[in-house]
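FAQ

Q: What does a record look like?
A: Structure on top, sequence underneath. For example:
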């Protein structure tokens, strides 16, 4: 029996209000039988847990019962200070709340753990946006936080990449995702769930409409599925290229990881000078031409003919611009 796991069960019930044995088991990564056994042990120890039968029932603590959090390990004290890092918290409009929560947490910890947590906070800093890019302006992000937490619909004026570029939508926000310094809103609109780049919202207004988030919706699972679908839709073609040794070394700094992996898995030597030939995925002729031109003389397109011609035409224009044509 794990005392730490029993404490986790207790804290889950305290924070969630009511949970099924299956929900507890999934949360802690144990079997349902183990969850039932842990609940019985807590009840035997005098913890006022009672079961609510029927559809939508589960286990919950007696109203008003609270436990003091004790026995926090050094690692757990460190981990707490990775939650709510200041950059994303400020984006969400929660910087003051995170600061206040940290101060209260530090005050509640024993002296030894307080020092360890403070050391952790002092030596880690999160800077989410990628290099060579200014952080996106997201003035409506705090409004979406409010909408997600209160389950209120939002009327938005949104700019998208395809025509018509500017559209109006009523969104029912399910969650927010921070990906490589870019905030995305996952929301239901017109009976389908879609992803919206928050920086592309031109205007937003909270409505009076309330909605219920589907019980079977999981933000993490949705996002993983969305990324898989995005990759499948992104690469619709393929190209055969040749790379010099220097070009292969420069590849990770100039193309996406999927292209690097494709080169690594398909590369075959051509000649004795270290050049290799490989097959890579491509989005479009125009996009592939722009990416591959970053490698200069260290890459040659073998096929398809359209991409090879586009590369040659672009190089010809550049030569003419510099008086070499």
């Amino acid at each position: 029996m794990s005392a730490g796991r029993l404490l986790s069960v207790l804290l889950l019930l305290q924070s969630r209000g009511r949970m099924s044995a299956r929900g507890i088991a999934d949360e802690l990564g144990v079997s349902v039988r183990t969850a039932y056994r842990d609940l019985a042990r807590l009840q035997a120890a005098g913890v006022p847990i009672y079961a609510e039968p029927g559809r939508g029932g589960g286990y919950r603590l007696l109203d008003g019962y609270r436990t003091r959090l004790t026995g926090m390990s050094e690692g757990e004290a460190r981990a707490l200070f990775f939650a709510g890092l200041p950059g994303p918290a400020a984006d969400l409009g929660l910087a003051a709340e995170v600061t206040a929560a940290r101060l209260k947490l530090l005050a509640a910890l024993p002296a030894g753990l307080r020092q360890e947590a403070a050391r952790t906070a002092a030596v880690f800093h999160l800077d989410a946006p990628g290099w060579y890019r200014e952080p996106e302006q997201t003035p409506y992000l705090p409004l979406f936080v409010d909408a997600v937490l209160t389950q209120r619909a939002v009327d938005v004026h949104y700019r998208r990449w395809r025509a018509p570029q500017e559209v109006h939508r009523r969104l029912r926000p399910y969650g927010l995702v921070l990906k490589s310094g870019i905030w995305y809103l996952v929301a239901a609109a017109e009976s389908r769930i879609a992803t919206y780049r928050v920086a592309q919202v031109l205007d937003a207004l909270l409505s009076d409409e309330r909605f219920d988030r589907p019980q079977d919706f999981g933000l993490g699972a949705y996002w993983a599925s969305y990324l898989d679908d995005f990759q499948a839709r992104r690469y619709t073609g393929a190209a055969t290229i040749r790379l010099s040794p220097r070009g292969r070394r420069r590849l990770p700094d100039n193309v996406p990881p999927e292209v690097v992996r494709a080169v690594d898995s398909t590369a075959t030597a051509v000649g004795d000078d270290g050049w290799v030939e490989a097959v890579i995925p491509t989005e479009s002729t125009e996009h592939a031409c722009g990416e591959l031109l970053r490698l200069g003389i260290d890459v040659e397109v073998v096929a398809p003919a359209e991409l090879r011609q586009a590369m040659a035409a672009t190089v010809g224009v550049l030569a003419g611009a510099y008086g070499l044509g």
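Q: Is there anything notable about this one?
A: The chain has a mean pLDDT of 84.
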